[in-house]
């Protein structure tokens, strides 16, 4: 009787374990982005704007070394807001889109230029490669993180040195330099192609979207993330929405 009970319990544990693995596999498969042909797709466009009173001024970072090369201070590039309250470096994206056009094959790129990361904010795509370069005549150690966990830790000792890596994880990747603590940049790594960063005038356009209703979000390094609501995209038309931060 005791032996039979042990056998039954073992089988029960085995079945539960198998069911848990199957559930995780199904969940993973369900969340994967599917590439489909998009004909007569629609678009979402608008601007990132500061909707409060006086916009915050950009910060200045004091340099603790390399003054002969880069000066005594550098702009943080955190709040790049022009006279029309239009915000640069806001990433606008479709949250949870399941299928659509193919992800571009373009590499992401981060350079060390005059003791700052260029570009300060950019968009990359999971599965693609990223080139990380040093254009300065000083040693840089590029150390990047997603949610506090290291993605890359790279020494770039010489001017012109570059390392190419694959972007295996999605999320907001912070880029820092262990040798120069004031340096900071971001790469927004997306699972799908429907993510863009705003330019100097705060404008953005997300194109070739299959007709449907989509949740749209916007992220900014200083203001955080906001939900722009569900936007209906019609075939061949452009839906308008602004990302308003306060």
Distance between the termini: 69 Å
Strand order of the largest sheet: 9-15-14-11-12
Count the domains. Answer: 2
Q: Roughly how many Å is the radius of gyration?
A: 23 Å
The CATH superfamily of the largest domain is Carboxypeptidase-like, regulatory domain
Largest sheet, strands/sense/barrel: 5 strands, mixed
SS field, number of helical segments: 2
Instruction: Say how many strands there are.
Output: 21
Beta fraction: over 45%
Q: Which regions are unreliable across 5 or more consecutive residues at pLDDT < 50?
A: 4-13, 15-19, 23-30
What would you call the shape?
Answer: globular
Helix content: 10-25%
Key structural traits:
five-stranded mixed sheet, 21 strands, Immunoglobulin-like, 246 residues, four-stranded mixed sheet, globular, single chain, 13% helix, mainly beta
Please tell me about this protein's structure:
This protein has helices at 2-30, 67-70, and strands at 34-35, 42-50, 60-62, 73-75, 91-95, 99-100, 108-113, 116-118, 121-125, 129-134, 140-146, 149-156, 162-166, 171-177, 184-190, 195-197, 203-209, 212-220, 224-233, 238-240, 243-245. With 246 residues, it is mostly beta strands. It folds into two domains: 36-73 and 81-103 and 192-246, Sandwich (Immunoglobulin-like), CATH 2.60.40; 104-188, Immunoglobulin-like. The strands form six sheets. It has a five-stranded mixed β-sheet with strand order 9-15-14-11-12, with no helix packed on it. Strands 2, 17, 20 and 21 form a four-stranded mixed β-sheet that branches. Strands 16-5-18-19 form a four-stranded antiparallel β-sheet, with no helix packed on it. Strand 11 and strand 12 form a beta hairpin. It is globular.
């Amino acid at each position: 009787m005791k032996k039979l009970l042990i056998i039954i319990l073992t089988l029960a544990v085995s079945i539960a374990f198998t069911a848990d693995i199957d559930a995780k596999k199904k969940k993973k498969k369900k969340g994967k982005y599917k590439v489909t042909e998009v004909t007569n797709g629609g678009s979402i466009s608008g601007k990132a704007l500061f909707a409060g009173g006086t916009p915050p001024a950009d910060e200045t970072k004091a340099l603790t070394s390399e003054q002969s090369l880069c000066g005594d201070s550098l702009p943080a590039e955190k709040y790049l807001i022009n006279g029309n309250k239009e915000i640069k470096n806001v990433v606008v994206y479709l949250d949870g889109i399941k299928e659509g056009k193919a992800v571009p094959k373009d590499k992401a790129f981060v350079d060390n230029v005059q003791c700052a990361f260029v570009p300060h904010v950019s968009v990359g795509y999971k599965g693609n490669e990223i080139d990380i370069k040093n254009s300065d005549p000083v040693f840089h150690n590029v150390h990047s993180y997603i949610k506090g966990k290291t993605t890359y830790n790279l020494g770039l000792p010489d001017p012109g040195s570059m390392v190419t890596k694959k972007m295996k994880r999605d999320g907001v990747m912070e880029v820092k330099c262990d040798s120069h603590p004031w340096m900071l940049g971001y790469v927004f790594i997306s699972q799908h192609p429907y993510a863009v960063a705003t330019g100097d005038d705060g404008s953005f356009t997300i194109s070739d979207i299959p007709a449907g209703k989509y949740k749209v979000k916007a992220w900014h390094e200083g203001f955080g993330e906001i939900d722009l609501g569900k936007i209906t995209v019609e075939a061949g038309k452009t839906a308008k929405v602004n990302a308003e931060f306060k």
